[in-house]
């Protein structure tokens, strides 16, 4: 398994490329602000051919470069339908004050956009990625898992020592607690968590030390929409 990544742009959003090994097909996860050059460097370094871009949610700091990355390699982007509108209307995911900071920035959808659903298994690049719908940070937030390797790309659901914010449009604190309870707490302690921001961690470490996961524990049960 080859997983390489880098923090992109002013938001320091983690962008990953994932492949069975060097020299093979890969997927790209969350190409954020100014991520295009970093993605191309990783593809050259590891001799990778991308077949898809996977988006954990639609916030600008995770999708900023999705159209140019997809366009350069003629690959589809995958996103949950509840966040698809953010690809072309990024301001809708931010507060009115925050949106004004983008100075009229406009984005567009890639030519090929495909929609994710909870529990779907994506057979891409020789990998089988399980999609978990994890609303709470946004309505269409998802995480991606490689169950055989006990790896989770958590987006902005779970960080080392924290969780994603819930004060932006589409966010909801009780909902993210239910997502954590339903999609994170059942995982093995050895599951490696590769988050949207900050360092990697494990489910076991977060179960033992993350106050939000402790708060989520009584909310066990099926995840419900906002």
Automatic annotation (TrEMBL):
One protein family per Pfam: Lactamase_B
Cofactors: Zn(2+)
Keywords associated with the record: Hydrolase, Metal-binding, Zinc
InterPro entries hit by this protein: MBL_Glyoxalase_II (IPR051453), Metallo-B-lactamas (IPR001279), RibonucZ/Hydroxyglut_hydro (IPR036866)
Lineage: Bacteria, Bacillati, Actinomycetota, Actinomycetes, Streptosporangiales
The keyword Calcium belongs to this UniProt entry's keyword annotation: no
Domain Metallo-beta-lactamase, first and last residues per copy: 12-197
Record bears the keyword Zinc: yes
Protein name as catalogued: MBL fold metallo-hydrolase
PANTHER family: HYDROXYACYLGLUTATHIONE HYDROLASE GLOC (PTHR46233:SF3)
């Amino acid at each position: 398994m080859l997983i390489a990544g880098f923090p992109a742009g002013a938001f320091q959003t983690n962008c990953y490329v994932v492949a069975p090994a060097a020299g093979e097909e890969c997927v790209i996860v969350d190409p954020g602000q100014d991520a295009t050059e970093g993605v191309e460097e990783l593809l050259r370094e590891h001799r990778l051919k991308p077949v898809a871009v996977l988006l954990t949610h639609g916030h600008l700091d995770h999708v900023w470069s999705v159209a140019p990355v997809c366009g350069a390699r003629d690959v589809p982007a995958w996103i949950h339908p509840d966040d698809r509108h953010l690809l072309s209307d990024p301001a809708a995911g931010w507060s009115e004050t925050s949106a004004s900071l983008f100075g009229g920035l406009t984005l567009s959808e890639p030519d090929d956009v495909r929609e994710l659903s909870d529990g779907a298994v994506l057979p891409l690049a020789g990998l089988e990625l399980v999609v978990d719908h994890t609303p709470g940070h946004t309505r269409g937030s998802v995480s991606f898992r490689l169950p055989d390797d006990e790896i989770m790309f958590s987006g902005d659901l779970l960080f080392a020592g924290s969780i994603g914010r819930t004060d932006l449009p589409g966010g909801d604190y009780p909902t993210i607690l239910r997502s954590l309870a339903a999609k994170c707490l059942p995982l093995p302690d050895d599951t490696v968590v590769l988050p949207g921001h900050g360092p990697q961690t494990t489910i076991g470490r977060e179960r033992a030390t993350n106050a939000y996961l402790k708060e989520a524990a009584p909310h066990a049960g099926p995840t419900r929409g906002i």
